[in-house]
Specification:
eight-stranded mixed β-sheet, eight-stranded antiparallel β-sheet
Length: 717
């Protein structure tokens, strides 16, 4: 039998990468190595890479590492990457910030193992170039200086009790340690003689004990002991408490109809859900003392839909206790998380200001530029405020980018250090509003503006209720100041509006690569009773409402299957007693869709030859799918992903043809969504002779029109 291989890659889509879990480990394990990206003290990293691969790790390059991390940011399954080269690739450290892919991966429960040079000291670019971040790299991305200890002590480390538990057995000579006090949630694995941390773990998930950024062997060269490098990477403690809350801990602007979810501990049978508005109640409650916050006891699902709607602007606290199966029944108390529901009104951000007059360097724009604010607290520097020149009348006018339903106005009055003596702050104020700048209406019940203290750390102390009037222009006329002075002023103002239009669309406007079977969602306007959805490929027809509208009662719409590679425009008109036309949004669907990218197969529960039936299985042709022993899929010769399908064929013995067959259940419709073609990538082997590649679709044979010699090309065609 010829042992000739044809690696084929059937696809009609952007490749979707899903890493398979390695047998015998709770982690999806990879080793980063890419010869086109620079390295420093770690050297070429080849020996370390090969040892890790032999231990069951999968080698990934810089581009594959980003895809792998993004996958685990989404699924939060246990994963670990060992960096065999110690310059951080720009694919995952795109910027020197805590928003880069590497940090997001750590925040999502990922695990990184790093040896040799200072973490993130150099950013490596494609082609071998580097950017020196210095210790600022770890400070900005990891959140602390990863080498703030004494350098070049070059003495043997002492392994701590925690280090021994993690699997450290062999000491090393420390060169780039960090301070033990540099950050919180730091577990010390090894110390330098002066007490600096030479081996450590920074945990990024609350309550975590086995993941995060792991640093050992802070010296030039390879690790002193490969077994302990693997032991550290493999160190794992079973989850006993819930993790990965959604909404995320501390999240704000959470929709009022949000569903809460979490990643369950490893062995629970059920979950107890606590939810309330007081931290102490949620933290202190139990099954025997529910404190009115035990909202679900013994539920099986790792999701909870709060009854009714959340209160606008309310901060909620919640906790998940994991309960073991009977007869054990142990309850593992979870940590308390929090989130804040969306506010009723949102700040109007596009505002300009003009005034009757202004003192030097104290123009009206100072009231809307945030220049004197630290958070929501104002300072006392006069040039961060507006002050009139004294010519009467004293007024300031604001113009928005469009007409809004104005909710309220928060005011920080004039707050100079001399305010208590001279009283420049506005006291009696008339407010008028207009939609066109010509016809004005006086706002009723304007309160007296409270006096500022003339001290730093001043919070807004006047709120004007606009009652939902429609306005594009607002004018404040100061009739008197607190000191009775001709000159008067304000520090800062902030208008908020009631969102009556649909907003926050998903897909986000101008999104690309959108599924052809999308569900369109949006945040509903506050007064909406129903929603009229307009969708089409002509933006003018959508804007003018001349395409057919679909009316829905929920703020979601499923349009049915769309075409590939098409740009769609849509808007939502919020309807009730008054209809508020929506803005026109757009998205573009994916250029193609996947048939099989071969990434989801593993060596246990979903083997490649279980899906693709070969001749070895059905005795109908001379084919064999997959290798004789694991890994059954090809992991080196790949086209864009991490796996391809080996197909051995023998057309010289019992059969004159070789086929591998996949049957889709349910059947797929390849004539919908504007599909025009089916693409297949294949790579041959130089020893291949004879044969002609073909496809069969529903028993209809389509022959490959290229040269039969392409089967012998060791390159993707």
């Amino acid at each position: 039998m010829y042992r000739r291989a044809l690696w084929s890659f059937v696809m009609v889509s952007v490749l979707a990468l899903t890493a398979a879990q390695t047998q015998g480990s709770p982690y999806d394990r990879v080793a980063y190595w890419d010869s086109t990206y620079a390295t420093s003290w770690a050297g070429d990293g080849i020996a370390v890479r090969d040892a890790l691969v032999a231990a069951g790790y999968r080698a990934v390059n810089a581009a594959e590492l980003k895809t792998w991390m993004e996958g685990h940011i989404a699924d939060k399954n246990p994963s670990v990457v060992v960096f065999c080269r110690d310059d951080i690739p720009s694919t995952v450290a795109e910027t020197e910030t805590a928003t880069c892919t590497l940090r997001r991966y750590l925040d999502a429960g990922g695990k990184v193992v790093w040896y040799s040079d200072i973490p993130l000291y150099y950013q490596a670019g494609a082609g071998g170039g580097t950017t020196t971040w210095g210790t600022g790299g770890s400070t900005a991305v990891l959140g602390f200086n990863a080498a703030g200890g004494t350098w070049d002590v070059n003495q043997q480390v002492k392994i701590t009790e925690a280090g021994a538990r993690w699997g450290l057995t062999t000491t090393w000579s420390t060169a780039r340690p960090m301070l033990q006090t540099a950050t919180t949630d730091l577990e010390i694995l090894a110390t330098a003689p002066n007490g600096n941390a030479a081996g450590w773990v920074k945990h990024y998930v609350a309550g975590d004990t086995f993941r995060g950024f792991v640093r050992i062997d802070d010296h030039s060269g390879a690790p002193v002991n490969m077994a302990q490098l693997i032991a550290v990477a493999e160190y794992y403690v079973a989850f006993t408490t819930a993790v990965a809350p959604v909404p995320a801990d501390g999240a704000t602007d959470v929709p009022r109809d949000a569903t809460m979810s979490w990643a369950a501990g490893q062995y629970p049978s059920t979950h107890d859900v606590y939810l309330g508005t007081t931290f102490a109640d949620v933290n202190g409650a139990s099954r025997t003392s529910a404190k009115s916050v035990l909202v679900s006891q013994g539920q099986a699902d790792a999701t909870f839909d709060p009854p009714g709607s959340l209160a606008y602007g309310q901060t909620y606290y919640w906790r998940i206790d994991e309960v073991n199966k009977a007869p054990d029944g142990t309850i593992y108390k979870g940590g308390v998380w929090s989130f804040t529901a969306e506010p009723y009104g949102y700040p109007i951000t596009k505002v300009t200001a003009t005034a009757s007059s202004a003192a030097a360097s104290m123009g009206p724009e100072k009231t809307i530029d945030g220049s004197g604010l630290t958070g929501d607290l104002h300072g006392t520097e006069g040039t961060t405020m507006w002050m009139t020149s004294g010519a009467q009348p004293n007024w300031i006018q604001y113009q928005f980018d469009k007409v809004y339903k104005v909710f309220d106005l928060k005011v920080w009055n004039s707050n100079q250090l001399i305010e208590a003596f001279l009283g420049f702050g506005a006291k009696s104020v008339t407010i008028e509003y207009s939609t066109d700048g010509t016809t004005w209406t006086a706002l009723a019940n304007v309160p007296e503006f409270a006096r500022a203290p003339g001290l730093a750390g001043y919070a807004a102390n006047t709120t004007v209720n606009f009652g939902g009037v429609m306005a594009k222009y607002v004018k404040l006329t100061i009739k008197s100041s607190w000191g009775g002075m001709a000159m008067a002023g304000l520090s800062e103002v902030r208008f908020s509006y009631v969102p009556v239009q649909a907003f926050a669309p998903q897909p986000a406007t101008a999104a690309t690569g959108v599924s052809v079977d999308p569900t369109l969602t949006w945040r509903p306007g506050r007064e909406a009773g129903s929603h009229k959805v307009y969708l089409g490929t002509d933006p003018n027809a959508v804007a003018n409402g001349t395409v057919a509208a679909q009316t829905v009662t929920d703020h979601a719409f499923t349009p049915g299957t769309l075409n590939f590679g098409a740009t769609y425009y849509w808007k939502v008109d919020e309807a009730n007693a008054v209809t508020y036309p929506g803005d026109v949004w757009s998205f573009t669907t994916a250029a193609y869709g996947v048939v099989d990218d071969f990434e989801s197969y593993n060596d246990d529960t979903k083997r490649i030859y279980d899906t693709w039936t070969d001749g070895l299985t059905d005795g109908k042709s001379g084919s064999q799918v997959g290798y004789d022993t694991a890994p059954f899929a090809e992991t080196t010769m790949v086209h864009g992903g991490t796996q391809s399908m080996p197909l051995k064929y023998d057309n010289t013995a019992k059969f004159s043809f070789s086929e591998a067959v996949r049957t889709f259940a349910p059947a797929q419709n390849w004539s919908a969504s504007g599909i025009q073609s089916l693409s297949l990538y294949f790579q041959g082997a130089a020893a291949n002779t004879g044969g002609q590649l073909y496809l069969k679709i529903n028993s209809t044979k389509v022959s490959y029109t290229g040269s039969a010699g392409d089967l012998a090309k060791p390159a993707w065609t």
